[in-house]
Design goal:
Elements: E1 3-10, E2 13-20, H1 25-32, E3 51-54, E4 57-60, E5 73-75, H2 88-95, H3 105-118, H4 124-130, H5 142-162
Parallel strand pairs: 1-5
Antiparallel strand pairs: 1-2, 3-4, 3-5
Helix pairs in contact: 2-5
The structure holds FE2/S2 (inorganic) cluster (FES) (2 copies).
The site of one FE2/S2 (inorganic) cluster has 12 residues, from loops.
Length: about 160
């Protein structure tokens, strides 16, 4: 097995890690950096539980090798809250009843963040499309979609007050 030294930024922190060639980004986050908020649902790119942002884009971290992340900037669910304050999408999920289990919720949060960054005012179809890769058999997604709408309003209010 070959090992590689990689450097990357995770949730704003510079990290230098040594990873085996076959280690996925998901395993590196969970096992090497102890960032267990990124979940292992299927290990096959189908459930979205392992979604993180890589250079601003949502990816399934179970389908990416850690070694491919040399020089990358990552955001995981642990990086959403700042200074003890929940991110707008986290607060909105609580407020609108969109919190599901600990397996699917982190991926939903990250996908929603990616959507709201590129489209601060998405309509329902756009929200559904953004979350299509985040699977949960336990919900009809209605409250999750409502939560994303609430988050969009919260972010707009935040932008207004800090402008
Ligand atoms: S664990 Fe990666 S998509 Fe399911
Ligand atoms: S998979 Fe999390 S509540 Fe359904």
């Amino acid at each position: 097995m070959n090992y590689h030294k990689i450097s990357l930024t995770v949730n704003g922190s510079q990290e230098d890690v040594i990873v085996p060639s076959n280690m996925t980004l998901m395993r590196m986050l969970r096992e090497t950096l102890a960032l267990t908020g990124t979940k292992n649902g299927c290990s096959a790119g189908e459930c979205g539980a392992c979604t993180v942002l890589m250079n601003g884009e949502p990816i399934n971290s179970c389908m990416v090798l850690a070694v491919e992340c040399d020089g990358a900037t990552l955001l995981t669910v642990e990086g959403l809250a700042q200074d003890g304050h929940l991110a707008p999408i986290q607060a909105a999920l609580i407020e609108a009843g969109g919190v599901q289990c600990g397996f699917c919720t982190p991926g939903v949060l990250i996908s929603a963040v990616a959507l709201l960054r590129r489209n601060p005012d998405p309509d329902e179809a756009e929200i559904r499309e953004a979350l299509v890769g985040n699977l949960c058999r336990c919900t009809g997604y209605e409250r999750i979609i409502e939560s994303v709408k609430v988050a969009a309003k919260k972010q707009a209010a935040l932008a207004f007050t800090t402008a």
